[in-house]
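Below is a concrete protein record.
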Amino acid sequence: MFGPKSSDAPPHELISGREFRVLQVLANLAAHLNLPYQPLPPVARR
């Protein structure tokens, strides 16, 4: 489910690669907009 495991896998095993990529994109977008980045925004904001 999580793809190939590597010996130096990141500690956040609970997050899949796709979700982590989305978080990276959101972080990059927040930095581009010069906004304070919140790793886990409220789920209500949909």
Notes: Helices lie at 17-32. The radius of gyration is 13 Å.
